[in-house]
Amino acid sequence: MIAPALSTPTVPRGVRLGYGVGSFCTATVNAVPGLLLLYYMTNFLAVPAWLAGVVVTAPKAWDLIINPLVGRWSDRTRSRMGPRRPWLLAGACTLPIAFFLVFAGPPLTGVPAALYVGACFMATATAYALFEVPYKAMPGEMTHDYHERTSLLQWRMIFIGAATAISGVLAPAIVTSQGEDGTLGSYRLMAVTIAVILLASMLGSFFGTARAPMTGAPEPDRGGWREQFAAIKGNSPFIWITALACTQMLAVSMMLAAAPYFAAYTIGTPAATQTLFAALVGPMLLTMPLWVRLSRRFDKRGAMILAALLFGGGTAAAVATPLFGAVYAHLTILVVGVGIAGVQLLLFSMLADVIAADAARTGKRRAGVLTGLWTAIESGVSSFGALIFGVILSLGGFIESEPSTPVQQPDSAVTAVLIGQTAVPAVIIFVSVLMTLKYRLTPPDGPAPDASS
């Protein structure tokens, strides 16, 4: 059970907005490469599907090193701007440039193109860590109150919904503006546009959190890596939330990587990627207040189970798309969007609870280390979604191509696309429902009957 709150401060509305706008960065950097990068490499740079999957996945191994390092550095930062905000500024100065270079479209194909994209994606991951890790550590330090953290994070999720709309609707629209399948030039235009949005959102969050309260432990943990990892190893709520996030985000990343293929080969038009994402994003923008109320009514565990069931149920139902058509596919994705909205809100709220509970128990500031480890592990595992989908495509006989030489995919490849978009992610999500039954961190004024301290 979470330690009793020392106070119940309300985070100012301006800080909520300033913090939330940073989610344009965190959501966009995850979604755009997850949605477009695999397709960009296989269909524009003639990179084999399995190698493209490796390129998307490999830089995430670097996250296991850089994210905990950035978290540790931010924990120990002493600055008039606080321990986190200098790192937000560092990320804002580097990430937009690195992101553009990923989609710059050099005159390369095959393995050389894969090496170039992989190097640029590694630089993007590094710059992203400078911003993301301190950014995600902040909610657990803004308030002691269990439910206030969920209320604070709904603002973040609203901006994530808007950013997902940009990623899933605007980015593909720019890509296809110069032809149904896009061109290298349209990918460059998309990259420039998204880079400008990233810069604006990151600077907005840096300035918008200038008055953010700091209620976490005042002193950083000065222990060495061995001592810190030993303490974290015994932190069962942290281990639980990390495992749950890995499971759920693995399914999300598979569906992101599969979406352009699902639109092109199952529904029959690449432009459906945009309308599918509109169906996904709508619930994220509209259902946040509902999920906040449900988390109060059924506690976060009960609300998470409901959200995951909607997510998994909608994903499983989409397997019937070849029978019922495009409208049916959009309705199933609408259900998925309602579920994902709840899953993401509750995941980050639970992480903030774990950070606050750790600070209350130890008296040390370790939010950066905890967030860095959580982000690195979750990001690394979830990145296997693209790799798994790439392997599924290869097993189905998917043929890589260039725009000048389009190919007719075999029926086995089309079936592989459907399975990778629906059946496999659904199974993963239903596993997460079983995992959620192990959740134990509850509010001080009303723990669940079977919760343990």
Question: Can you offer a commentary on this structure?
Answer:
The protein is mainly α and 453 residues long. The protein has two domains: 15-211, MFS general substrate transporter like domains (Growth Hormone, Chain: A, Up-down Bundle); 225-443, Growth Hormone, Chain: A (Up-down Bundle). It is 75% helix and 0% strand. It has helices at residues 13-21, 23-44, 49-57, 59-75, 85-102, 110-137, 139-142, 146-175, 184-208, 225-233, 236-267, 272-286, 288-317, 321-324, 326-362, 367-382, 384-395, 411-421, 423-436. Helix 2 packs antiparallel against helix 9 (184-208) and helix 13 packs across helix 19. The chain is globular, with a radius of gyration of 21 Å. Mean pLDDT is 82; it is low at 1-8 and 445-453.
What would a concise description of this structure say?
It contains 19 helices and no strands. With 453 residues, it is mainly α.
Question: What are the key terms here?
Answer:
single chain, 453 residues, mainly alpha, Growth Hormone, Chain: A, 2 domains, 19 helices, 75% helix, globular, disordered N terminus
